[in-house]
């Protein structure tokens, strides 16, 4: 059972009583009259062929308060899109699929590229960005949640707890972030969060001082969780990263635009497991190797916008400071795992730390060598200023695809 401690500048919602999901959903049904709720599901077609997403859809069929579900479908040809329409047809909510590789949305993408407003590389960030645009165009939801499609321990109470703080009519939260323990198969998981982000934030504070941005990020129990909810108007003004820095980028944008009193985190599960990314030591373009590079660059870029200056010497100092702090944390994680009857491979943990330490330096070199890199996709406010009717045409394109005219 989680504790009641409030340990930072953002509000922490705990799971103190294991309140039944039916009770939460009964309240959310009432909240929905004032604040209609939607859900974004960014998905690869390959996830439709696994067990996790089918089980997630089964759970979502029982959710009574959602106004709409928007599914972003990547890496799908025509036949696969048609399969996806059948796959999701059992959902009772108003459900629409964005066929991101279809001719209609590709045409809109080309138009955005011609205006210098393209979504850069394909990936989860791009998928979420397009889903956000459609949701804004539909106007059906004033609160929207997002979670991944590979959660093998999913149950609908996760969604209810995630939405509750933002949907409650008496609360003033614009954004909620989910957290949970990363435990599965008798092992302690969550390597990038445990072994990179936590010690990196502490190392950055040690080298550059306790900046408000770093203190803010360090309040989050799981900053890399892919589960969050927000008011739909948040989607209009924030910029989303196109790379693996999506979760850190979203938190950074929230800190820039909103008071910390409008941001919260919520305990959404006692157990959480999903598809594990390989470390990919030999391939910097994939797995945890690529993820750690993108996260480090996202942090450097944000700090630079707040007046922090970097040099090669700074990055070497940061690497050494991070490495020592990460090794100390491995010992703490090992002892915690032992007390809880969990296993932890200290050798592989230290190998991961060595990889992440090298990537901190590499990310620094990339940051210094390419100061004009444009990692963020434009806000939808900017897109609408440049192409006022684009969201309307996106909505029409998605409706045509989902009616069967493909």
From TrEMBL:
Q: Which InterPro entries match?
A: Nucleotide-diphossugar_trans
**GO MF annotation, one:** transferase activity
Protein known as = Glycosyl transferase
**Which keywords are on file for this protein?**
Transferase
Taxon lineage: Bacteria, Pseudomonadati, Pseudomonadota, Gammaproteobacteria, Oceanospirillales
């Amino acid at each position: 059972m989680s504790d009641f401690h409030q340990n930072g500048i953002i509000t922490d919602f705990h799971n103190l009583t294991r309140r039944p999901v039916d009770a939460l959903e009964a309240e959310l049904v009432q909240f929905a009259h004032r604040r209609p709720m939607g859900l974004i599901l960014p998905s690869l077609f390959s996830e439709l062929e696994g067990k996790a997403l089918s089980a997630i859809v089964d759970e979502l069929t029982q959710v009574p308060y959602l106004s709409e579900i928007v599914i972003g479908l990547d890496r799908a040809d025509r036949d696969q899109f048609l399969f996806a329409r059948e796959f999701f047809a059992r959902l009772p909510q108003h459900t629409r699929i964005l066929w991101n590789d279809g001719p209609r949305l590709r045409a809109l993408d080309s138009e955005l590229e011609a205006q210098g407003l393209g979504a850069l590389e394909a990936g989860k960030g791009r998928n979420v960005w397009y889903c956000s645009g459609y949701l804004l165009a539909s106007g059906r939801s004033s609160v929207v949640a997002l979670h991944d499609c590979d959660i093998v321990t999913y149950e609908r109470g996760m969604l209810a707890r995630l939405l509750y703080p933002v949907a409650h009519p008496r609360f003033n939260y614009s954004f909620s972030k989910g957290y949970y323990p990363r435990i599965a198969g008798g092992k302690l998981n969550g390597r990038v969060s445990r072994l990179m982000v936590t010690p990196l934030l502490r190392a950055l504070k040690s080298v550059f001082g306790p900046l408000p941005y770093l203190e803010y990020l360090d309040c989050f129990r799981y900053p890399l969780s892919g589960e969050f909810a927000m008011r739909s108007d948040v989607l209009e003004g924030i910029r989303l990263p196109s790379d693996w820095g999506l979760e850190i980028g979203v938190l950074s944008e929230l800190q820039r635009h909103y008071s910390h009193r409008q941001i919260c985190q919520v305990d959404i599960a006692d157990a959480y497991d999903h598809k594990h990314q390989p470390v990919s030591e030999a391939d910097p373009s994939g797995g945890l190797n690529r993820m750690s590079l993108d996260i480090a660059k996202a942090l450097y870029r944000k700090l630079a916008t707040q007046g922090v200056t970097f040099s090669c010497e700074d990055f070497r100092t940061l690497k050494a400071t991070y490495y020592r702090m990460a090794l100390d944390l491995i010992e703490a994680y090992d002892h915690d795992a032992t007390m809880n009857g969990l296993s932890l491979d200290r050798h592989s943990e230290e190998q991961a730390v060595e990889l992440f330490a090298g990537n901190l330096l590499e990310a620094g070199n990339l940051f210094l060598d390419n100061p004009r890199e444009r990692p963020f996709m434009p806000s939808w406010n900017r897109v609408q200023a440049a192409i006022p009717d684009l969201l309307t045409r996106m909505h029409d394109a998605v409706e045509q695809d989902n009616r069967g005219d493909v």
